[in-house]
Every structure is written in C-alpha cells, then in structure tokens.
C-alpha cells in the first residue's frame, strides 16, 4: 500500500488546476488546519452558517484561480451541515489568512473573521471520481472520470455506500467500503 500523503487525514480534494484543498473533519481538525496548515497566500472558506470544515486552498506559490475558489466553495457547502438538511445551495464566506482570529473563550474549531468577506452561493452537488488513486467526492469541474453524481437526498449513507460499491465493481474499480464512507458527506443521498 502506498504511503499516505500529509493531507489525507483531512477532508481533501484536488482542484481542476491541481491545487490541494484541505479541511477539518471535526472541531479538533478545524483547529489544527487553521493553526498549522495555513500560509499567507492561501485562501480560506467556511459556510455562513455553523457546521462546516474550515477549508484552505493551498497556493503553494501559485496563483489561486476563480475556478479553484468556486470548486472549493462547492466542496465546503457539500461537507457542511446543510447536506444533512437537504439544502440545494448555501452561502460560503471566502477570506484571507490575515482576517482569521480566535477570541478568548471561543470553542475548539471556532474562529472569527475581521474585515470584508466575499460571499458565494454554492450548490451542494458532488461527483465521485478517483484522485491520487483514492475515491473522492469532488465538485464536477474538478473530476476527471465521473463515476456517479451525488446530491443530498433520502438514501442512508450505509445504503448509498453499498450501492456505490456495486457500481464500482461493475466498472472494474474497487474501493473498500470504509474508503467510500470516508469520501462521502454526512447525511442522506440521491445517487445519479
């Protein structure tokens, strides 16, 4: 088995231009991402409502494009609490590392933002694809080969995982059920 990349312990995907995007899977990971994995040229995203990963588009010395931001916004929206609520769209806030701060008494994984923020309406819709040899649920424009589209819906996550595993078997791809579950947002699904 190949060695894990540093970002694989977080929520992650690669944008269509090849930028790595990471976000926390929990309050503890959000805290870790913000405190330890942000550089001054990166861009940060979070939903307007509570309950999403703090997502970071890693610039790694390259220009972050508008497409990178739009793709990260879709990913942020889809891995937020809004997916569980069956929302079709939600508002995403986009800001720079210099705008984020923590106040005394803020809970773990909670941060504040100063100054003006950019607001984007993002659709909750992902496509299953393979990135870096691993099954990922990513924005459609970031997907290479599209395996299946997933939307918020009523199919339970375990049932959706089994259906996805069957589809992967039919197209001669294999993924362990755990890998499938890790790729998916929390909540119910509509599979297309």
Q: What's the structural blueprint in terms of helices and strands?
A:
Elements: E1 11-14, E2 20-23, H1 27-36, E3 43-47, E4 55-57, H2 66-78, H3 81-84, E5 89-95, E6 100-101, E7 112-113, E8 118-123, E9 126-131, E10 134-138, E11 148-155, H4 157-170, H5 177-183, E12 189-191
Antiparallel strand pairs: 1-2, 2-4, 3-4, 3-5, 5-8, 6-7, 9-10, 9-11, 11-12
Please characterize this protein's 3D structure:
It contains 5 helices and 12 strands. The chain is α+β, with helices and mostly antiparallel strands. It has 2 domains: about 5-125, no CATH class; about 125-190, no CATH class. It has a 6-stranded antiparallel sheet. The protein has a 4-stranded antiparallel sheet with strand order 10-9-11-12. A two-stranded antiparallel sheet has the order 6-7. The mean pLDDT is about 95.
Features:
192 residues, four-stranded antiparallel sheet, alpha+beta, single chain, 2 domains
Total E-strand runs = 12
| Low-pLDDT stretches | none
Would you tell me the overall average pLDDT?
94
Structural class: alpha+beta
Main beta-sheet annotation: 6 strands, antiparallel
Helix content: 25-40%
| Main sheet: strand order | 1-2-4-3-5-8
Rg from Cα: 16 Å
Number of domains: 2
H-E order: EEHEEHHEEEEEEEHHE
In whole angstroms, the N-to-C terminal distance is 31 Å
What would you say about this model in short?
Helix content is 25%, strand content 29%. With 192 residues, the chain is an alpha+beta fold.
